[in-house]
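The instructor's notes for this session suggest beginning with a concrete chain rather than abstract definitions. Hand out the sequence below and ask the class to guess, before any prediction is shown, which regions might be ordered.
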Amino acid sequence: MGRIEKPLRTLFDRSRPYFEKGRRMERLKPFFEATETFFLYPAIPVKNQPFIRDSLDLKRYMSIVLAALMPPFLFGIYNTGFHARNVSGLSTDFMSVFGEGLIIVMPIVIVSYGVGLFWEGLFAAIRRHPISEGFLVTGLLFPLTLPPTIPLWQVAAGITFGVVIGKEIFGGTGRNLFNPALTARAFIFFAYPVQMSGDRVWVAVRDTAGNAVDAVSGATPLAIAALADPKARIEAVFADSGYTFQTLFFGNHIGSIGETSTLCILIGALILLATGIASYRIMAGGVIGAIATGLLFNYFQSPDLPAWFSINPVYHLVTGGFAFGIVYMATDPVTAPGTDRAKWVYGFLIGAIAVLVRVVNPAFPEGVMLAILFMNIFSPLMEYTETRLRIRRRIPNV
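After discussion, reveal the predicted structure:
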């Protein structure tokens, strides 16, 4: 036991009796246990057989997911700071840019964690169960899907809706039908669309030349595509606006904090796949579904149809939040099916529906959000169907 761990363990051991049943601080036991597990790994001995040992508990599981979120998170901080200083005419050296990004992004993350943990703790105290570490992921996922200048009160409203309506109303962690972070994002998207999409997604800027400037408008790639002339090629429209394929892939453009860099998201995907946390079937199925549907729409080209019909399907993978959604949200083990074949179908339909919404209804260019929420509804049915089919193929016992 280390020098720091030993006194912490002693402190928690001495404090634990005050939170036991019948004591005055009984209702605060979930907060005590949450604090203890934050600083120390749980050391709960198994007294009866079978003695099962597993290296992956919930805390380690969530720690790996958080590690996989670090590449898009850190790049999102840098990217936000870069554009904020660039439009202000300030220097864009790395330290200044990263510091600026921290000033803009961290309040969003702090509000998300603070308000979300309040609701988690409140429900834990009422139901008298431990606070789940699952919110450590939800509290970071949600800010990464938001534009960097969203008002903080909207962040609080969104995470409240996501935790209370998206999870706790179903019974808490492990019982939720929808991904809580995505539920929060959908609520903000439909309740306050001006701050979430279109040409009003903007980048915060500093006081420049003595004039206080609060914001500067900037159209995201999805907004540009939605307004493109049907006769134009979206690839050319992107290039004219400075959004080449390389720019979209590396992510140095305005947009939601953690969704712009497909490269960083791929690094996170490799971490999740290498550790066995996420399913490659869902990710691969989503990519196949998006490309197949995009190719299908390429056959229906007409001057009267939106320009999205003729775009190279690969562009669907690097624009908007498609990559972020298919890697971090579609693979949520609670809301995704658990059987192998169902995972392929689940991922394929998410990719197909995301492209379908994006192409046919340009009013909702961020189709992946709606696609994942829609497939969350059918996930239990898909898993049940595959299970029943497997049972039918079994040889009856004689």
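Then share the key points. DSSP finds 16 helices and two strands in the chain. The first strand starts at residue 202 and ends at 204.
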